[in-house]
Write a structure and sequence with these properties.
The chain is α/β, with parallel strands linked by helices. Helices cover 36% and strands 34% of the residues. The chain has a single domain (3-175), classed as Nucleoside Triphosphate Pyrophosphohydrolase (Alpha-Beta Complex), CATH 3.90.79. It contains 5 helices and 8 strands. The strands form 2 sheets. A 5-stranded mixed sheet has the order 1-6-7-2-5, with helices on both faces. It has a 3-stranded antiparallel sheet with strand order 4-3-8. Strand 3 (39-44) and strand 4 form a beta hairpin.
Length: 176
């Protein structure tokens, strides 16, 4: 899998980039599209922010399987991965925490069931909202204006990067 981006404290708060040398958490996340090409965005009403579906990889779980599980838990949809986008490293020096995210694009392919949100996700008021790719990029760019939280800055930059990578990949495929 190809490296998409390395995000460091310098991207969020300035200063010199510093890389951590060990991974604290592996995760899987990315784009989920419906039959109309709309993108699933997870809205967290308590924070008034959006994020892409995804989360941590459990012990013994493959990254792609973790992404499909996260899609089911957060959106209620079964899905099928159709493209590997790459991976993103988030080096949060302030927290001494490095997250390695495997990023995919998947197609939602069955009628939804009820989401199975964690207690934390329920407390955040997380719901799935479907929107065009352009609108998803717009709400992520707006999120930058509504948050000055350190960790949230990483999430916003990471998910915006995933959306832009997907957009670039789809534009390249259309031209081919």
């Amino acid at each position: 899998m190809e490296l998409i981006k390395i995000i460091t404290d310098s991207d969020i708060v300035g200063g010199e980039p510093e890389l951590l040398d060990s991974v604290s958490r592996y995760s899987a996340r990315g784009i989920v599209v419906d039959e109309q090409g709309n993108v699933a965005m997870m809205y967290m009403s308590k924070l008034k922010l959006y994020k892409l579906p995804g989360g941590g990889i459990e012990d013994g779980e493959q990254a792609q399987d973790a992404f499909l599980r996260e899609i089911m838990e957060e959106t209620g949809y079964e899905a099928e991965v159709f493209h590997e986008l790459g991976y993103i490293e988030e080096h949060k020096k302030r927290n001494d925490f490095m997250q390695y995210s495997y990023c995919y694009a998947a197609k939602a392919n069955h009628s939804p069931r009820s989401a199975m949100l964690s207690e934390n996700e329920q407390q955040l008021g997380m719901t799935v909202t479907w929107m065009t790719l352009d609108k998803a990029l717009e709400v992520m760019n707006d999120s930058v204006l509504h948050s000055n939280d350190y960790s949230t800055g990483f999430m916003i930059l990471r998910d915006t990067t995933i959306l832009e990578t997907y957009q670039s990949t789809m534009n390249s495929n259309e031209k081919a």
